[in-house]
Amino acid sequence: MRVLVTGASGLLGRAAARRLIDRGDEVTVLQRRSAGLPCREVRGDVADPAVAARALRGQDAVLHLAAKVDVTGRWADYASANVDGTRALLAGCRTAGVGRFVYVSSPSVAHAGAALAGVGAEPADPARTRGHYSRSKAIAEREALAADAPSLAVLAVRPHLVWGPGDTQLVARVVARARAGRLPVIGSGAALIDTTYVDNAAGALVAGVDACGPVHGEALVVSNGEPRPVGEVLARLCRAAGVPGPRGRVPFPAAWLAGALAEGAWSVTRRRSTPPLTRFLAEQLATAHWFDQRRTRAALGWRPEVGLDEGFSRLAAWYGSAPVGDGRPG
Amino acid sequence: MTVPIGAPGLDPAWSRFLTVPDAGGTGHRWHVLDNGVRDPRGTLLCVHGNPTWSYLWRRLLRSGPPGWRVVAPDQLGMGWSERLTGPRSLQQRVADLGDLTAALGVTGPVVTVGHDWGGVISLGWALEHRADLCGVVLTNTAVAMPAGDRGPALIRAAHLPGVRAAVTVGTPVFVRAASSLSRPPLPAAVRDALAAPYRSAARRTSVGDFVADIPFAPGHPSRPVQEAIAEGIRGLDVPALLLWGPRDPVFGERYLVDLRSRLPRAQLHRYEGASHLLPEDAPQYAEAVTRWVADLTAGPGPAAPPRTTAAGGTAGRRLWSALADRSGDDSPAVVAPGGSTVSWAQLARRVEQLAAGLAAAGVRPGARVALLVEPSPDLTAAVYAVWRAGAVIVVADKGLGFPGMRRALRGAAVDHVIGSAAGLVAARLMGLAGTRVAAGRIGSAARRALGARHTLGELEVLGRAAPVPAAPPEDADCAVLFTSGATGPAKGVVYTSAQAQAQVELVRSTYGLTAADRLVAAFAPFALLGPALGIGSAVPDVDVTAPGTLTAAALADAAAAVDATVVFASPAALRRVAATAGALTAGQRRALGAVRLLVSAGAPVPAPVLWSLRPVLPAAEAHTPYGMTEALPVTDVSLAGIEAAGTGDGVCVGRPLTGVEVQVSPLSAGAVADGPLTGRPGVSGEVCVRAAHVKDRYDALWATERAASDPPGWHRTGDVGYLDAEGRLWIEGRLAHVVTTAAGPVTPVGIEQRVEELDGVAAAAAVGVGPAGAQVLVVVVVPAGAGRRPGLRGRPALAGTGLADAVRDVARVDVAAVLVAAALPVDIRHQSKVDRRAVAEQAARVLAGARTRRRARPGRP
Fold first, then answer.
1. Separation between Cα atoms, residue A14 and residue A37, nearest integer Å
2. Is B730 in the same domain as B813?
3. Same structural domain, B442 and B574
4. Which residues of chain B does A228 touch, with a Cβ-Cβ cutoff of 8 Å?
5. Residue A268 has what pLDDT?
6. Domain A2-321, what architecture?
7. For residue A329, what pLDDT is reported?
């Protein structure tokens, strides 16, 4: 199968592309930076129709991960990367006759704030999201699913909190703060959260590429299916990285307020760096977020290969062996 | 005006209009909800009352019996049917309904379903269509004013001319009040849908006319028609089902009594907590109707195979036979707390006289007699006298709490109350019906105030000159007992005389009891069994409803009073006995040293508790039976048996007793016990029991009884377990507590046992959190010495990773979270069963994390 993978320079995109290559698919990757993978590479902006058209020519399927993932910045940047990029690819697919489109999304497109316990994938709703990232992803997911048609099967896959060796988003930030002694537990630390080990998320995306067609027009949340209290997740990540665990507690309302203030301050001062806390993050770390995986597993014919415990062991091994500087925060 | 399309649960496809001429040739435009089944196996004709409309029956339309047409008209002037130019009488309305069903092509078989004043109209139709009729269902309705009754107070108030116009027509008060009666409160969207056809005064004219047509006064024009219907249904020979919401302020208990007197063979299900709008308050009514109708058309199913007889048979013995046998025996039969003694001869004489006195005072065979008397010789005498008189004891213990007792006793429809002064006060507060008999000493002022017509003493005197009643048949009811109410309102459980006798014989044979034994009963239900077993008994000086208060010394004193050889006690009582053993005197130790048998009942007893009792009761063989209010005992295991069984996935409760059959109904992936019964070893499922001493039925709970006795003749216990290769039964927990994970059902007890064996763990509960079918497992641990750790008070908290790892190592299934708590909630009656439902609720709250927005109000579909 000929598959275009966008955003293959990130943790998950690289892992998914690697799997497709390893099993013999003909893979093209598209992103700004080089992904350094042994396959055809198109470099550029997915939102540029010319770039998209070049990358899409002759493909059977698209696995679309390229996105601006952050907690700060201007709305226009998110809209351009996440909404316009998706539109350009969908239009390109129709022109090039590509039959399958797997949109990699996020559970945060469907909700903000309230605790989620064992829910399925509810419809994306930009009005209920928190932050530019979630809102732009929600808009793009809705447009992608609306484009589902007999000639173009569209499937949205939403991995929840992906982590693993080399992760610069979740793991690296947690570890950096813990090392600095500035990783508190927000709230009681008991909120049950789902996470996804990177290999499992990559496996689910590949399964999505295969299932897309018979399964189409719907969104599926992907996780390890092993929810754990957030305090325990943080403690085990820290232990794997060899840094001290979370210290102290911040009550949720204080954290939420701090997040709101930080967002305001970063916005007013137009700082480009990442604020220590946002409301979105405060909610993610203080309220339950775990999902009913039955529909996902049945639809994708997929199960996670790496259990949480094995994932933490692999993370510990990576921290124990990886040379300083290889994605590892100093 | 159109039918509200968005009304919750209403399918617009059901809605149709048709014009039907009446006898006078005037055409009327009807609105009907009709599920449109063609060539139906039968038709449910559902008739609403005032001021609702056919929307009330939407759940029957959605999930009626397969192949049945469901037709629910809006009465003329009501709902979305045409508005009338004048009032419409009961007679006309019955005729209208007949015109409509003819126009709709409704033919038999038909089951009528009626609510409120729709009940009378549906019965009027039923009487005029006897050839088509195959059953009637009635819910919160009345067909007649019981003698001396002037009608429901609320309706009567609305009947006053000025009030009626203002309340029913001029303003939407009556329309809105009707749906405000619902308990629990209805969602706003449903209330709006119910009120939608009645938005203006013009559209409410018939609401007022309907009220005016209720014939309170003898001269009312509709009175003869109403009386003809009320009398006519006495001759109905089709099956009837009564579904009742007891919290109805309009149609109270007396209307149910009246209906039952006219339809004496009717099945009844009381939905505790439900009010007037039963189809709204108890949505599960639709399932009950569907099941009942399916049973009707299935005809008489395979009859329940005869139950095996009690071990050794009952040999014609009755509950009072031992009293007759020992009527010349002056040895103690009953020793009360405080030491007062009643001999066998005294008790036999007293029971006989009291039975004769009760009969002379009007207690008829089959009458229900509530006993509100503290454990005492009076209570024992009263129980056996009621039995001897052929009446039925109704016993609700204090463990249910006052509201629970009230619900239970009112639901049991008692005819008489025997009570101590305190008991009679309680009966008054509960609003129980029935004549009153005072037990024990009572002053004349108190007696008058409490309305006691007799005292036990007077009845005994009366009975000396009266004939002893004939012995009742063995298959007559003899007792209504109540379940613990741990999972909803307590259920009444009816036993026949033969079933109670079979229980006595089973206890006797299981434990080898002979006339040489004497019993100390520190467990309330067994405190009454001594005379039936023919062995002397003593009750320790302790509140038997608070078993945790029993001390070793109190137990020893009771044992000494009767030279006890047998002790019956609950696990909570036994824990306390072991803990207070240090205070025993040498004499008390001697008395306990003579006990040969210790029977612990009420909940599974952990082996360590039994071990701890060895120094206290050195000669006693410890046994623990397994059973429930509906069937006790089912199995038994000795301490040696527990040790020999070792560990398994649950608690080993031993082998089924002689004559008792035990099988399991395997669980589906969603933890529904719908598999065919099997006795195959190792198969886990709902434990089902068949034996001569299993309850006869649940009382006034037709749907519950139907579900529990499936297949017929068996009792579904609600426990999950399996039989092992040795034929031993292992209990894995309550069916309601099975955790339904995506990977399949997980039972709690085995996990809890393995966690409780970890160092530093005092107790554990394994519960599910999340929606059914996608739950995750959570273990809540009480660390040893937790009571002294102030940090643990309040809601459960996250366990450290060390404890979490240790729990996961032994759990064998994925554990999402391990929490620690100072204590686990237990059910109030036995104080020994962990209330896993409460644990699960606590855990779910903790694991939801911070509350970031107001929780949505729980709605109903």
1. 8
2. no
3. no
4. 816-817
5. 61
6. 3-Layer(aba) Sandwich (3.40)
7. 40
Q: Which residue has the higher pLDDT, A178 or B103?
A: B103
SS3 of B571-631: the string is: HHHHHHHHHCHHHCCHHHHHHHHCCCEEEECCCCCCHHHHHHCCCCCCCCEEEEEEEECCE
pLDDT at B147: 67
Domain final residue pick, B264, B298, B332 = B298
CB nearest to A192's CB, from B773, B797, B816? B816
Phi-psi region of A327 (alpha: psi -120 to 50; beta: other; left: phi over 0): left
Give how many domains chain B has, as a whole number: 5
Q: What is the ipTM of this complex?
A: 0.90
Amino acid at B676: P
Do B849 and A230 lie within an 8 Å CB cutoff? yes
Q: What is the pLDDT of residue A330?
A: 35
Query: Scanning the structure block, which residue is given the tokens 């770039």?
Result: A51
Spell out the residues 6+ positions from residue A49 whose beta carbon is closer than 8 angstroms to its own: A88, A91, A92
pLDDT at position A64: 96
Q: Which residues of chain B have pLDDT under 50?
A: 310-312, 853-861
Q: Which of B299, B235, B289 is closest to B267 using CA atoms?
A: B289
- Whether A188 and B771 lie within 8 Å, measured CB to CB: no
CB-CB under 8 Å, B801 with A290:
no
What confidence tens digit (pLDDT) does each residue in A208-252 have? 999 999 999 999 999 999 999 999 999 999 999 999 888 777 776
List the one residue out of B242, B240, B248 whose CA is nearest residue B281: B248
Handedness of CA B584, B586, B591, B593 (dihedral sign): positive
Q: What percent of chain A is predicted at pLDDT more than 70? A: 87
User: Exposed (0-12), middle (13-18) or buried (19+): which is B557, by Cβ within 10 Å?
Assistant: buried
CATH number at residue B106: 3.40.50.1820
Does residue B775 belong to the interface with chain A, where contact is any CB pair within 8 Å?
yes
Which residues of chain A are within 8 Å of residue B849 when distances are taken between CB atoms? 115, 187-188, 190-192, 230, 252, 286-288
Q: Establish if B369 belongs to a structural domain.
A: yes
Read off φ and ψ for residue A115, nearest 5 degrees.
-65, 140
In a mutagenesis test of the A interface, which of B769, B780, B798, B808 is the best target, namely the one with the most A β-carbons within 10 Å?
B798
B852 at A interface, C-beta within 8 A? yes
How far apart CA B320 and CA B353 sit, in angstroms, is 13
- Say if residue B548 is in the same domain as residue B472: no
Residues B761, B726: one domain? no
Is residue A328 predicted with pLDDT exceeding 50? Answer: no
Please report whether residue B380 resides in a domain: yes
pLDDT single digits (tens) A275-310: 666 666 667 778 899 999 999 999 999 999 999 999
Active site residue A319: no
Residues A11/A164, Cβ–Cβ less than 8 Å: yes
What are the C-alpha distances in Å from B748 to residues A3, B188, B768, B779?
A: 47, 39, 9, 9
Structural Rg of chain B based on CA atoms: 30
B580-601: per-residue pLDDT in tens? 999 999 999 999 999 999 998 7
Query: What's the pTM?
Result: 0.86
What's the CATH code of the domain at B820? 3.30.300.30
B365 with B458, same domain: the answer is yes
Domain residue limits at B822 = 738-848
Q: Give contacts of A119 with chain B, Cβ < 8 Å.
A: 771
* pLDDT at residue number B205: 87
Query: Within a 10 A sphere around the Cβ of A5, how many other Cβ atoms?
Result: 33
Residue B144, CA atoms < 13 Å, CB-side half-sphere: 20
Identify from A111, A122, A188, A289 which residue to disrupt to test chain B contact, counting B C-beta atoms within 10 A and taking the largest count. A188
pLDDT tens digits for range B731-786 = 999 999 999 999 999 999 999 999 999 999 999 999 999 999 999 999 999 998 87
Query: Residue B384 belongs to a domain with what CATH number?
Result: 3.40.50.980
Are β-strands B685-690 and B715-723 bridged in parallel, bridged antiparallel, or unpaired? antiparallel
